[in-house]
Amino acid sequence: MLAFLEDYLFWKVTEFLIVKKDYRILQLSQDHGELWLEKTENKNTQVVRLLHYNLDWSNWLQRDLGLTAENGDRIRRKLAKGELKILNLYFSAYPPVDDYEFRIAEPTLSENGKVTVESILVDRANASEALKKIENRIDGNIEIDLAEEFSVDDIESIKKNALSSAVSRAKEEQSIFNYGKPFFTYLFIAVQVLMFLVLEAAGGSTDTSTLIKFGAKFNPLIIEGEWWRFFTPIIIHIGLLHLFMNTLALYYLGTMVERLYGNLRFLFIYIFSGFAGVLASFIFSPNLSAGASGAIFGCFGALLYFGVAKPRLFWRTLGLNILVVLGINLAFGFTIPGIDNAGHIGGLVGGFASAGIFHLPKKKRPMLQGAFLVVSVAAVFLSLQYGFSGKANLVDERSILVLAQQHIKAEEYEQANELLTDYRKLETLSAESLFMLSFTEIKLGQLEEAKRNLLNVIDMSPDFHEAYYNLALIYFDEKELKKAQTYAEKAVELNPGQDSYRETLEQINYYLEEAA
After folding, report:
1. What is the pTM of this model?
2. Do strands 47-52 and 34-38 pair parallel, antiparallel, or not at all (unpaired)?
3. Which residue among 119, 205, 285, 293 is the active-site one?
4. What is the DSSP string of 103-168?
5. pLDDT of the chain along its 516 residues, tens only?
6. Which residue among the candidates 52, 237, 242, 344 is catalytic per the annotation?
7. What is the C-alpha separation between 176 and 168, in angstroms, rounded?
């Protein structure tokens, strides 16, 4: 029996660590004599290394401790840990023949000091004492009766139980990440690329008119009742770089979330997150916007929910990388102008909430899921109510100007005039908006109002050459040639390269000469 004692203790401790303490196999030698286990969530002992080897000299022990620390540092980097604590267990019939205690009396450190290796020698003479040290270190009772008789079959049974438990747990964990095969991820990628090509053919993906026409988020039109703009921006992108970045992010994050949650859950998470992102942008940002960023941040949110539901598995597989990438993206959103961070945060919250509504595949928590559903519905309802109540700052002057330009382009001058006039009652118009208002007044025959507004434009912006030119045209039409000449000359002076300015001035001068 003694011939098998070390083997028995080796596999009995291994079985305890795997079955009772949920350690996972990192490395296993071909002869099964060396085994590395990990449980990164255990702060005291993140890695256990077990070696069944008959020690002879302490010099060998010294070399092995150095190699153990080096391999531990490679594992530390692989696990993305700042520091790593290793419990190093030797199972030997006898201790080294020479002085060895000082080798393991103190922990061994890696060269960079980030790995700490604490070693315990388990031999026939000190087995009980060594097992107690192991139990104290891992906080558990291994339940080994050294007086018990055992056979080779007993050892094989313990070994089989330990390894099969580790394999079963690994397969179970891996199956979580393969619940569904990506389908909708690729579909959304294809749709947004196709839409980009349509936008380019229709006038350009950076052209404001084209973006509005095809459904970008534009608050004034949402307020007028175009509710579908809460969804259509998800597949619209502004420029090739915007499309490329979001497509790349969707390829990596979308496939991950769809594998984790399944096809239909992913479809709901993606669409709801995109809607939540647009809704947040609608409330907090008056700017025209589009893109799948809100939905992509929803994928982050769904992964964070997975982290809450399965914290150990999350931190061991995805955790650090996901949080780093999410942090970088949010930091960019807060520091780089023009990024709709409200939409990003709205999508993030929407993804977390929608994942909570469905929970994880094959898992049900009705009370929690019901709570997520009630809170999500209430949040959407209250957000929409607030957005359409008139209390939120949904529209800025830039949005009004863009919409007015759309009306003018469609020769809807009365609508453009009414829009700018109404906004003027709330805010002081800029020179650009005031000029736009004067243009609608000219088209509507309101020449006195147009002249007053053009003179205000010149006061506000003395180099606004279009205002001088339009004043020249009005006075020319009213046969006030001297005033027309004065404003036409100023327009030419400010913008000498404009042929229409020079031609108008020449025509005015001709009539003045004829009148003389």
Report:
1. 0.73
2. antiparallel
3. 293
4. HHHS-EE-TTS-EEEEEEEE-TTTHHHHHHHHHHHHTS-----TTS---HHHHHHHHHHHHHHHHH
5. 445 788 899 999 999 999 999 899 989 999 999 999 998 878 888 999 999 998 888 999 999 999 999 999 999 888 778 889 999 999 998 999 899 999 999 999 999 999 999 999 999 889 889 999 998 888 888 888 776 777 888 889 999 999 999 888 888 777 777 788 899 999 999 999 999 999 999 999 998 889 999 999 999 899 888 999 999 999 999 999 889 989 988 998 999 999 999 999 999 999 999 999 999 999 998 888 999 999 999 999 999 999 888 877 777 677 666 777 777 776 766 666 567 788 999 999 999 999 999 998 888 889 999 999 999 999 999 999 998 887 767 788 888 888 888 888 888 899 989 988 988 887 888 999 999 999 999 999 999 999 999 999 999 999 999 999 999 899 988 889 898 899 989 999 999 889 998 998 889 888 888 776
6. 344
7. 13
Task: Quote the tokens at residue 144.
Answer: 């080994």
- Letter for the amino acid at 127? A
The answer to whether 124 and 37 are in contact (CB under 8 A) is no
Q: Is 293 a catalytic residue?
A: yes
